[in-house]
Amino acid sequence: MSSADAVAAVLWVGVTLYAVFGGADFGSGFWTLLAGVGERGRRARDLVDWAIGPVWEANHVWLIFILVTLWTAFPEAFASVMSTLFIPLCLAALGIVLRGAGFAFHRVAARRSGRRLAEAAFATSSVLTPFFMGTVAGAVASGRVPVGNAAGDPVTSWLNPVSLLIGALFVATGAYLAAVFLVSDARRSSMPDLVGYFSARALAAALGAGVLAIAGILVLRSDARFMYDGLTSEGLPLVIVSLACGAGALILLWRGARRGVRPLAVAAVAAIIWGWGAAQYPYLLPQTLTIEQAAGATETLTTVLVVFGIAVVVVLPALAFLFVLDQRGLLQEEGES
Amino acid sequence: MAFTLGFHIILACIGVAFPAIILVANYLGLRRGDAVALELAQRWSKVAAVTFVIGAITGTVLSFEMGLLWPEFMRRFGDVFGLPFALEGIFFFTEAIFIAIYIYGWKRLSGWAHFWTGVPVVIAGLGGAWSVVAANSWMNQPDGFKLAADGTVTDVNALDAFFNGAVAYEAPHMILAAYIVTGFLVASVYAVGMLRGRRDRHHRLGLLIPFTVAAIATPIQFGVGDTAARSIAKDQPIKFAAMECVQKTATHVTEYIYGRCTEDGVKGGIGIPGLDSWLVGFSTDTKVIGLDTVPPEDRPPANTLLHWAFDTMVGIGTALMALGAWLGIVWLRRRDIPRTKWFLRAVAVSGLAAIVALECGWIVTEVGRQPWIVYEVMRTEDAVTQADGVWVSLGVVLVLYTALGIATVMVLRAMARRWRDADDLDVPYGPRPAPGQPEAPR
Asked: What is the value of ipTM here, to two decimals?
């Protein structure tokens, strides 16, 4: 395994973590959009607030991690993606700003109208941002990003069946993960009635994501044959693992099991992402740029790997500390939990 | 990009320096059992929560923009100067984690344990600032690579790029600026409150703690800034010449304060003969390199703007230092802040003044480097994206950030108002009430 492959693997770990944590974060915003204005909706929004509050920031640092790793280790690929896919990436960045601002302001805004506006910004951009990121992923996966400064088509590169389907799939997957997490958050907090509420939504989102995934594979077959071949050969074991985990999670959800749903749901998402990676290996931009060709200077790659090592030693214990404090309820207001 | 960076730089300063000021208040509160200081620390940490979120999203936008706007720059040099960003990422992650623990942990963690969870935030802030400035100073003093005859980049050494020639003065200059801006900014809020007649202990401490931090940082900044200017005269003589409007290489160069820069020298302004030479080499015989040493297309644009920005930064810095000395002298004699309202008025504007100085300094370093994006290696025009729609996105960004800025100020003011009326409120980082319970009446 070359150092370029190693860095690519680390990058892929970042993509997986962002898909799981960031995806669930976006997904919980999706549910606030659908929650409606009634008492039930308000309680659902409260739960989402309560659940993502302390980990919101950490969930999105993975995106910065992905961007920085990409431009440091694979500058050629970074430049090509960012210039050809200028439009969807700008829209995703816009969504990130609106979402963060909405989240920051919605509890401190002075007037009711201000709070409403902030909540609406948060909810809407929670759907739009992952959608546009999905179209970017679809553009890359279907080989529509050639090497060069804005060398690809600025519009059709991301406005095509594969991109649109993957965009929708991103939204559905995030919603599914979020609902699964929120089921156990509802159990942990004092809102047992929301357990059933989010269980039903998790089932619906799982079915939606499943249908989109099957449709996606069919579209890939006609539109991006390379990826289809990859998914049905090198990536096949992982696709099967993903299907098995997804089905297992569904059964456990259906039975109202308390344990096992979250790990299975996460495994289903992680497996399909690694299946995608396996399918397009050794390409970073399918059929135009391999990982080796895109890689920056060897010494930089080595340094980046060392920095990752430091990061694992420094950040992971701190992150674990945060999650432990959070789960033990040490990060709450006194006397109210 | 310039606009978004100019916006982010203020929030980044607050993110770097505010936690330290909060911890000072926290320490005083715990050490002396001072409830007022503890309350200040707690409220400030809630303000920091809001500014931190906004700083995080504007920072994310910047990392998008690196690729959206400068793909050629990133393509050629991403692997050379990416390392500082990777390190910054680690620092930022650590900061994000501990700031969440600190802000959420007020009630449940014991006093000193809670205090110590804030310390990593301060350290990570310093490390993160150093790393990001290292990337910028690399653009000023590129190092850690060689250029082949055809322009390809070879022999990359990311560590040399990180420890480039300019970081040793640029990074401390920026970090001190962060402490100065944040200190005066927070102090100015309480000065306004005192001018409106709220002269309780809460306001006095709220003014004194951040003001003291900033007043200590300012004279140090003067020394660091002076060193930086001299290093720039040596390392980037054209930038220095543009800052000081030096047209022709000469000795006994006159230092002009303000004035209009033209091809035939400075029009207007106050001239002090020989001072510019003396500042560069401690002797009026020192030769100062002028703009005439490079062809016109290699000279920075907007010369007068650059010169004014530099003079304004130095002028405000000097004034702030005098303000700090004023309080220091009165304090030594009477153990009190100056009684005159003019002192409070000066403090009230010091926050905005410090921000102006910050932006001026940023103009000097960025505009002064033009037309280069990487000094004497790559031109800005060669780095830019070929994608359409850049101007549209600039317009959107202008509108959006203006709204964001107004909303942030409005929200913070509303928080202050509610604190005055009642007690507590929710912020993005909690401390959170249990869900399902009615929200606090507003």
From this structure: 0.78
